[in-house]
Amino acid sequence: MSQVSVTINGRQFRMACEDGQEGHLMNLARDLDTRIEGLRAKFGEIGDTRLTVMAALTLADSLAETGLRIRRLEEELAALQNARSEAVNLDKAAHTAIAAALNAAAERIESITRKLNQPVVGNSVAMG
Questions:
Q1: Total domains, the chain
Q2: CA 37 to CA 89: how far, in whole Å?
Q3: Can you tell me the distance from the alpha carbon of 124 to that of 108, in angstroms, rounded to the nearest whole number?
Q4: Is the pLDDT of residue 127 over 60?
Q5: Does residue 58 form part of some domain?
Q6: Residue 10 has pLDDT above 70, yes or no
Q7: Cβ partners under 8 Å of residue 5, min gap 6
Q8: What is the pLDDT of residues 54-79, one digit of tens each?
């Protein structure tokens, strides 16, 4: 475990974190401190606890909006995956239909070729 010293709202806090997460923790603390300073600039000195609670609520709101956006993106992804699956099925059906049409055409061509290659019986041509 690592120890990191962060400053939030003018106060220093010693925090423990996993090894390698020091920079991330410092960035989180810096973000919280920036939010608190922004609220202080907007509302003035309204008390440290109230500023901290308001900052926490803005973070919770941001988290809730992000969660909603993720859910919408997951739904969109699921719809796209379903559409892709349907497109693959239609593609397979189209390939099957094309193959069947080509086979039928080949059989007709072979049938016509066989008829054309049959010997002509008699040398007389009927005149009409």
A1: 1
A2: 56
A3: 28
A4: no
A5: yes
A6: yes
A7: 12, 13, 14, 15
A8: 999 999 999 999 999 999 999 999 99
The residues facing 15 across adjacent strands are 4
- Residue in the structure block whose two tokens are 């059989």: 107
Half-sphere CA count of 114, side-chain side, radius 13 A = 6
Asked whether residue 121 is assigned to any structural domain, the reply reads: no
pLDDT of residue 128 exceeding 60, the answer is no
- For residue 52, the model assigns a pLDDT of 93
**Within a domain: 128:** no
- Structural domain harbouring 39: 2-114
The more confidently predicted of residues 119 and 123 is: 119
Within 8 A by CB and 6+ apart from 48, the residues are 9
Calculate the average pLDDT of the chain. Answer: 93
Residues 33 and 8: beta-carbon distance below 8 Å: yes
Tokens 């059906």 correspond to: 93
Region class of 20: left (phi > 0), else alpha (psi between -120 and 50), else beta: left
